[in-house]
């Protein structure tokens, strides 16, 4: 047996810095299942109008509206000896992406600002733009590329220093994070996060569900939430997650139809 030992590739250094910061969080994990019938129908309707809206965009839209109802979660707790809470006014969401860099798959992220003021179509347009950016040349990845070029010890020091500034934190970490593994048959997973709340979206599965006294087949989607117990407590976190579930399941197409109406008049 041969074991190859080598230094960690530079393209993975930013992930190490992120995980070290995420370990400061006091993470608690919640999960639920969402009846995705309305979501699937809405996605199909958009597609019939030649617009492909990803499930990630739907959740960015819904979570930002839920934060309007539960503004207490739009915060971050930082510091050990003298902890402080940063309360944010803007509702910004961080979305993670599977990115190819120098022949290696890495995770990168970008923050979409003022999500609660944007339509589904606009959110999807911004995601499409981010997906089309090259890691090697894209302006959005300049900071990460610089961080990767530094020795690990120096990159760690700079990352910690930068993350002590509330403005920089909001610009790079956002109010919440959404990550998805729904492109493969993955059920529930619980991501590590620096955000107060982070949502993991799994794959939709057709499952038997009891509705009153009948068993029916419905498209069910697992949704997990990691939250920082330093910032919010379990009861509030549970109410927040349940509200997101309700928005997706019982919206009755009102929000989606408003987006479709706006699209039709463009």
TrEMBL record:
<dbReference type="InterPro" id="IPR023213">
    <property type="entry name" value="CAT-like_dom_sf"/>
</dbReference>
<dbReference type="Pfam" id="PF00198">
    <property type="entry name" value="2-oxoacid_dh"/>
</dbReference>
<protein>
    <submittedName>
        <fullName>2-oxo acid dehydrogenase subunit E2</fullName>
    </submittedName>
</protein>
<dbReference type="InterPro" id="IPR050743">
    <property type="entry name" value="2-oxoacid_DH_E2_comp"/>
</dbReference>
<keyword id="KW-0808">Transferase</keyword>
<dbReference type="GO" id="GO:0005737">
    <property type="term" value="C:cytoplasm"/>
</dbReference>
<dbReference type="GO" id="GO:0031405">
    <property type="term" value="F:lipoic acid binding"/>
</dbReference>
<dbReference type="InterPro" id="IPR001078">
    <property type="entry name" value="2-oxoacid_DH_actylTfrase"/>
</dbReference>
<feature type="domain" description="2-oxoacid dehydrogenase acyltransferase catalytic">
    <location>
        <begin position="170"/>
        <end position="252"/>
    </location>
</feature>
<keyword id="KW-0012">Acyltransferase</keyword>
<feature type="domain" description="2-oxoacid dehydrogenase acyltransferase catalytic">
    <location>
        <begin position="4"/>
        <end position="131"/>
    </location>
</feature>
<dbReference type="GO" id="GO:0016407">
    <property type="term" value="F:acetyltransferase activity"/>
</dbReference>
